[in-house]
């Protein structure tokens, strides 16, 4: 178990942004109506299908709420996991006008898309409570003017009015700016007596700025954003159903600055977790993204099975240079060739994208385990494997995982001729998979990272450089 002290912690900590909350839905029309028309979120055009210059919803929705997002996989269109997710707590949303938010929600009453769902809302007037002393208190003041809204699946949201200056403008997601300003806090319930240990978890593993008092743990996730855990009597951790199949089995996505340190600490304590729902996605991203689920107190004594789990909450943890990172964009932008963004379902315009979605969902639900990356050793960079799911194609990935080497997988669809693309040809002149790029070994002729293709050559290279030089599995390799 790790005991290394944390490095010096900046005032806001190592966590840069709570970027998205992942919530399954089986009612996409209802979700679009509530979140876009009601709360003023905006559609991110990256996740959809383009028809005649318009972006239509297909299998999942990414909805911008300021700098944060809701990711909503559609379970009636192939997504795995529970039919609907309901977060065990509250999502706080800032809006520029509470009266306009009320009018927007009132306009949804009786909407056909919301018929038979959990949608409701209730407005509460200002009860003239004393001014808050800090933002954490302010985000949790039920006495001040606010609206409690329930989304079609049953998720609870609290809306409060804030000035336009509260919008986080450090960076942007693509698409039009949302009317709502952002997500200042996400609040979870937790078992009684767990808040101090939860605070310790985020301080130790994430080097986050965190505090705990009066049964509430607060974690800073950005300049104007907090993650909060509120103790509730009688609540306990229920592991009888696998987390990724539970209705409350949502995940949060965090962007952090010192990603490598957090990855190494969690790996050392056996706290990395692979979600079967995202196995292929995670393999393709390598060490740029990892997941953890069990929140433990690193200061508590460890038994034979490790430390007691205080709470289960899936974290998707990303590097700043992740492919989906908003931090690369300091100005609002739209994707090229997608100038018009409309929230329409694909079945309204075409049947080109239709398939047996239930069969697809069943196949995804049958995936038994997720993928967990290995933390790079000091001075070691992750390898990049280009391959496809053929017998020879999987040999290299098996070897990489057996050697616990950090790697990123790039799929090369040989059935569609992707092995003949110029970019891949430069790596594998014979246009064959698999191919490996090893940045830890330089080509003596060019000084560039070494590239190897064909499974036999890759296995020999891995044995020579990472397996002790002897036959892998033959007992000759030395550490």
Q: Termini, distance in Å? A: 21 Å
Biggest β-sheet: count, sense, barrel?
A: 8 strands, mixed
**Rg (C-alpha, Å):** 24 Å
Poorly predicted residue ranges: 1-6, 128-140, 473-479
Derived from helix and strand composition plus strand pairing, the structural class reads alpha/beta
Q: Number of helical runs?
A: 10
Question: Given the C-alpha coordinates, what overall shape results?
Answer: globular
Helix fraction bin: 10-25%
Mean pLDDT: 87
Q: How much of the residues is beta strand, in percent?
A: 25-35%
Q: How many beta-strand segments?
A: 22
Structure description:
α8 (391-402) runs parallel beside α10 (455-466). The chain has 479 residues and is α/β, with parallel strands linked by helices. The longest helix is centred in the middle third of the chain and has 12 residues, at 195-206. Strands 8-9-10-7-11-14-13-12 form an 8-stranded mixed beta sheet, with helices on one face. A 7-stranded mixed beta sheet has the order 2-5-6-1-15-17-16, covered by helices on one side. 19% of the residues lie in helices and 28% in strands.
